[in-house]
Amino acid sequence: MKFSLYKSTHMLTAILVAVMLTVIITTIQQLYETAFQQASDQLTETVRSQARLIESTASNTLKNKTLPYTAETEAIALALIRQTYKNHRGFGQTGEFALAKKTKDKLQFLLGHQHTSSDKNTDLTTLDLTNDFAIPMQRALAGESGTMVTVDYRGVEILAAYQPVRLLNYGIVAKVDLSEFRKPFIRTSVISIAIGVILIFIGAIGFHLITTPLLNRIHKSEYRMRLLLNSTAEGVFGIDFSGRCTFVNSTCLKLLGYADENLLLEKSLTEILQRSELTKGDLDYPLPLDILKD
């Protein structure tokens, strides 16, 4: 009984820890999903505005020019665009824009890849059109717009928004490392869980200090009651509301022909009285047969 009560207090503490962790993880997850959607929307709006800015910057140069634009005309427009982005260092710690055009079966990056070159204006990285590291740009050059989670040219997982620049048939991509986006949520989760564990630990100590004396008193009271019941010459048999045995003293064990009370616990009175041994007459104090019939 004492062990069972102490075990129950430990189970309660474990349940509190599980509930605390579930609440924290669920809350952080919901906040993360909401923030992720907001970040996607903001990145989409940013790349859309940058596409319109590039079109506006190049519009004066391309005005009254007929398609297809000559290499000289495109070079002048590109120079203006690069001048506009000359002092632009991206956004956040890892955010950057990438501008590219399609040349036969290649992707030629005109701006971007700031993590591989200190001079973005001369970084003309060329990739295969089917390269898995340039899926957002491929979609932008195909006239599509949207957001996606993918891996960039560094092999780093990113959140990317892409948009076509229709005036020049370019594509623009704005991207940010997911690690930068997740960092505050991971930090918040660690802090929240640490604080929760500390509070649960303090609460468990307080709970233990309060319940231990009560459990000891219950155990001592039960022990005294057992001594009292076992000292009487009358058989005592206790049952719960479902009619199953919860207690039996030594005299009752002798009357029923059992050596161990564990053989009776959780059994109904009918099961106990219908033991075959009671009908064999091998008891010192056999019960009347009319009791067995009941």
Describe the 3D structure.
The chain is α+β, with helices and mostly antiparallel strands and 294 residues long. The protein has two domains: 2-183, Beta-Lactamase (2-Layer Sandwich); 237-293, no CATH class. Helix content is 52%, strand content 16%. Strands 3-2-1-6-5-4 form a six-stranded antiparallel beta sheet, with helices on both faces. Strands 7-8 form a two-stranded antiparallel sheet. Strand 1 and strand 2 form a beta hairpin. The chain is rod-shaped, with a radius of gyration of 39 Å. The two termini are 32 Å apart. Mean pLDDT is 77; it is low at 115-124 and 276-294.
Write the layout of secondary structure elements.
Layout: H1 2-62, H2 71-84, E1 96-103, E2 106-111, E3 126-128, H3 135-141, E4 146-151, E5 157-165, E6 170-177, H4 178-231, E7 237-239, E8 245-248, H5 250-256, H6 269-273, H7 289-293
Antiparallel strand pairs: 1-2, 1-6, 2-3, 4-5, 5-6, 7-8
List keywords for this structure.
294 residues; two-stranded antiparallel sheet; Beta-Lactamase; 7 helices; alpha+beta
Question: For the terminal residues, how far apart are their CA atoms?
Answer: 32 Å
Radius of gyration: 39 Å
The counted number of beta strands is 8
* Portion of residues within helices: 40-55%
Largest sheet: 6 strands, antiparallel
How would you describe the shape?
rod-shaped
Number of helices: 7
Order of helices and strands: HHEEEHEEEHEEHHH
CATH level-4 homologous superfamily of the largest domain: PAS domain
With strands numbered from the N-terminus, the spatial order across the biggest sheet is 3-2-1-6-5-4
- When the domains are counted, the total is 2
Beta-strand fraction estimate: 15-25%
Sheet/helix structural class: alpha+beta
Q: Give the name of the CATH architecture of the largest domain.
A: 2-Layer Sandwich
Point out poorly predicted stretches: 115-124, 276-294
Average pLDDT, to the nearest integer? 77
CATH topology (level 3) name of the largest domain: Beta-Lactamase
CATH structural class of the largest domain: Alpha Beta
